[in-house]
Amino acid sequence: MISAITPTPVWYLILAALLFSIGAVGVLVRRNPLVMFMCIELMLNAVNLSFVAMAKALGDIGGQTTVFFVLVVAAAEVVVGLGIIVSILRKRPDATADDLAELKG
Amino acid sequence: MQLFVFICAALMILIGAVGVIVRSHPVHAALSLVLTLFGVAVLFVAQDAHFLAAVQVIVYAGAIVVLFLFVIMLLGVDRAESLRIDPVKVQRPLAVIVGLGLFGLIGGAILEGRKTLIRRGTGLETATEVSHDSNIKQLANDLFSNHVFAFEVTSVLLVIAVVGTVLLARRPGKSGAVASAEELASSATAGKPS
């Protein structure tokens, strides 16, 4: 009966879409650059989830390989992004995303 | 059983994701992010992506979130941000509308295209009694045969990221990092005779 229902790939994709939308809303509403960065991680994870669901649904390992590369790029992106955020926040500890316009020379 | 796992993991993911965007304290947001990442790892296991689930836990929950927490603690920005201040009057409602619209668009596209989700590859190998590491083997075969060039380029990307971060995070001298490197060299040569 209810345990016989197995989640189809569409469920996973809808969940990934929901996660992506939440991350997008977070980037739009939050003003702390660190939290905006975390929301970008949420969106990356949503994409990873849909890649893995596609790999399972299509029977193709290529989706999982892509997720591997996304993980590497995400790690590099976090390292560089946090470096930039550290160098901004070191000057002004309470800087928000609104203040970043002052970066222009 | 699969349904139960899916519902639990989906709840973890959604609660964590909402926690990231509504908690005013950055440390709480980072810990909510851990909840989401673990939920995604559980769904990876449910989808026969065992290697990626392990990497997800190690790299994301282990390294990236720790890096976030480290930066939060290092900079001392671990105080609650007041969420009452709304810089642009209609930004919050507009953002929610944009999010709902985005979800509607993606969901509509998924439901519209679900007929094309037909198995066409060779299929994923699942763990059996004989070989427990078939997922890793299949992933490695694909990675080191079809995508070996991209894999090599990845190493260049990581080196660039490391060098760039060292340049960014170093305390710059009077006019940037290059000047400070020259200063360092000149002070080294100046220091030699004395």
Question: In words, what does this structure look like?
Answer:
The complex is a heterodimer of chains A (105) and B (194). By secondary structure, chain A is mainly alpha-helical. Chain A has one domain: Helix Hairpins, CATH 1.10.287.3510. Helices cover 73% and strands 0% of the residues of chain A. Chain A is built from three helices and no strands. The longest helix of chain A has 30 residues. Chain A is elongated. Chain B has 194 residues and is mainly α. Among the domains of chain B are: 87 residues, Four Helix Bundle (Hemerythrin (Met), subunit A) (Up-down Bundle); 48 residues. Chain B has seven helices and no strands.
The CATH class of the domain at 1-79 and 122-129 in chain B: Mainly Alpha
Quick one: how many beta strands of chain B?
A: 0
Unreliable runs of chain B: none
Radius of gyration of chain A: 18 Å
Q: Helix count of chain B?
A: 7
| Ends apart, CA distance between termini of chain A | 65 Å
| Approximate shape of chain B | globular
The H/E string of chain B reads: HHHHHHH
How many domain units of chain A? 1
Task: Find the structural class of chain B using helix and strand composition.
Answer: mainly alpha
Low-pLDDT parts of chain A are none
Order of helices and strands of chain A: HHH
Assembly form of the protein: heterodimer
Give the helix level of chain B as a range of percent.
Answer: over 70%
In the CATH classification, which architecture of chain A applies? Orthogonal Bundle
CATH level 3 topology of chain A: Helix Hairpins
Q: What Rg of chain B, in angstroms, do the CA atoms define?
A: 24 Å
Please outline the helices and strands.
The complex is a heterodimer of chains A (105) and B (194).
Chain A: H1 9-29, H2 33-58, H3 62-91
Helix pairs in contact in A: 1-2, 2-3
Chain B: H1 2-22, H2 26-46, H3 50-75, H4 91-112, H5 134-145, H6 148-169, H7 176-191
